[in-house]
Amino acid sequence: MMHRGTSLQDAEKVAIMVHGRGSTAQQILGLADYLNLTGFALLAPEAPGNTWYPYSFMAPISQNQPHLDRALDQIDQVVASCIAQGKSKEQLYFIGFSQGACLTLEYTTRNAVSYGGIIAFTGGLIGEKLDTTRYKGDFAQTPLFIGASHNDMHVPLSRIEETEQLLQSMNANVHKAIFPDNYHTIREEEINWVNQHILS
Questions:
Q1: Which string of b and e fits 81-94 if b means at least 16 CB within 10 Å?
Q2: Nearest partner of 105 among 139, 82, 133, judged by Cα
Q3: Which of 67, 68, 124, 139 is the most exposed place for a label (fewest CB within 10 A)?
Q4: What sections of 37-187 are H helices per DSSP?
C-alpha cells in the first residue's frame, strides 16, 4: 500500500484510493493533484499484477474468484488500519476509477454505513446480475458520486442505473453524472463537482 499526504495519525480525513485495471497505486495517487485532498491521509492499495480481478465486472461472480474476495479483503484491511488509528468510518472517503470504482462500490455497499463520501469515476456494482442478498447496512445519506459516459465500452449505463437504484434504497445520497461522449476517463466536470460537494 502507498501513502501520501498527511500522516494517518494526524489526518482529520482519509482518502482510500483504488486504481483501475492495468494501473498502479502511484497513478491513482496522482489524482490528488486535482482533487481537494489537502489535509487528508491518502492510502492506495495495489492489486497484484495491477488487476483486482481477471474478467469483466459484469461476469458471473464465480469467474472472478478467488481474486474478487482477496481484493475486497485488501480494502477491508486498509479500513481496519484506519479504525486501529482511531478514525471513524465517517472520516473515510473512497475514491475509485474504472475497475477500482467497481471495487469501491462493491466494498462499501456490502458494508454500508455513514462514510465521509464515496466517489466512483466510471463504475457499477459487480456481478452478471445484482444479488441484493450480498448488500447490507444503511448509508445514512453518505454523499455518493458516480460519473461515466452514456456509452462506456466497459461499464453499461444500465448497470450504473441499477447500481444507483440499489444505493438509494440503502439510503445513499447519490449524484449521478452521465456525459454525452464515449470516453473512459475522468472529466474536469466530475472533478469540479466532487471537489465542491464531497471534498469541500
A1: ebeeeebebebbbb
A2: 139
A3: 67
A4: 67-84, 99-110, 157-169
Smallest CA-to-CA distance from 109 within 146, 136, 81 is with 136
pLDDT digits (tens, 9 = 90+) for 129-188: 999 999 999 999 999 999 999 999 999 999 999 999 999 999 999 999 999 999 999 999
**Cell 489537502, residue?**
38
> Residue for cell digits 456525459?
179
Task: For residue 173, give the C-alpha cell.
Answer: 445520497
C-alpha cell at 72: 475486497
Cβ–Cβ under 8 Å, residues 99 and 59: no
Beta bridge mates, 145: 119, 175
Residues β-bridged to residue 96: 18, 120
The C-alpha cell 466536470 sits at 189
pTM over 0.85: yes
For residue 24 the three cell numbers come to 498502479
Query: What secondary structure does DSSP assign to 125-151, as a single string?
Result: --SSS--GGG--B--TT-EEEEEEETT
